[in-house]
Amino acid sequence: MIFQRRRKVFESHVFVVDALGFSDKIRRADRRSLLDLWGEVDRQYAAFKLKLPNLVALQFGSRIIGTREFETLRLNDMFIVHSRREMPDPALRYLVTASILYQQMLALKYIPRGGLGFGDIVRGDGLLVGGGFLDAYDHAEKRPSSVKDICAIAISPHFMATIGYSKKALRLVCFYEGHFFLHPYHLVDPDLGPFSPGRVLDCLEAAETNEEKLNATRKFLSELEDYDATMLPGS
Question: Residue 63: what are its φ and ψ, rounded to 5°?
């Protein structure tokens, strides 16, 4: 008789992000270049896991060990982050996590697009299912046409409802065309250095982003409303 460990449904914030155009690289790859792509993604994944805001994280080659407030899963070029553990200010920590990975991907000449969601999920044996994942995935991959091509991290209303009145968290959020997004450059990571609209666009151009996505992101960067702007009189 085969015994299976009992699975548990839990609520979690979920972060989903992928690199646009990476699937085309996979399709064009021969066996040698496919191995090179595998190594490239594996190195990026290890660097990202090391930056997750866990209490303790140590790197041994491509392995990261330590406390596991955050758990990760990857599918080709898609990274998924969730948590089974309670932690203080979880929404803020997910916003920080998303901001670091977004900027890291830009610096490495990837084209990032993702979503932040919240809801019930079940995780085990390499499988993750649930409404929390769909909430994040839909805001990454199934956006309305008006914001579909923006190279940024969209935030679901379910995620926004968990932020409350945290000013630190709200300063990492911006508003555009009736939708919430992660602020693309408010957070400054000491290793990556400061970002600006110009640097974001330079990185996207270096990653050979097509004109449609580049123009959509340029318009987003010039017209987004952030927390400080909404606090001004008459806004």
Answer: -95, 135
Q: What is the pLDDT of residues 157-200, one digit of tens each?
A: 999 999 988 889 999 999 999 999 999 999 998 889 999 999 99
DSSP, res 163: T
Residue ranges in the chain assigned as alpha helix (H): 22-28, 31-51, 90-107, 131-141, 157-160, 167-170, 197-206, 211-223, 227-230
3-state class (DSSP) for residue 219? helix
CB 179 within 8 A of CB 147: yes
The DSSP output letter for 150 is -
CB contact burial 215-233 (16+ within 10 A = b; e otherwise): ebbbebbeebebbeeeeee
Q: Are 117 and 128 in contact (CB under 8 A)?
A: no
* Total-model pTM: 0.85
Q: Strand, helix or coil at 6? A: coil
Give residue 53's identity as a one-letter amino acid code. P
Angle between helices 211-223 and 197-206 (to 10 degrees): 170
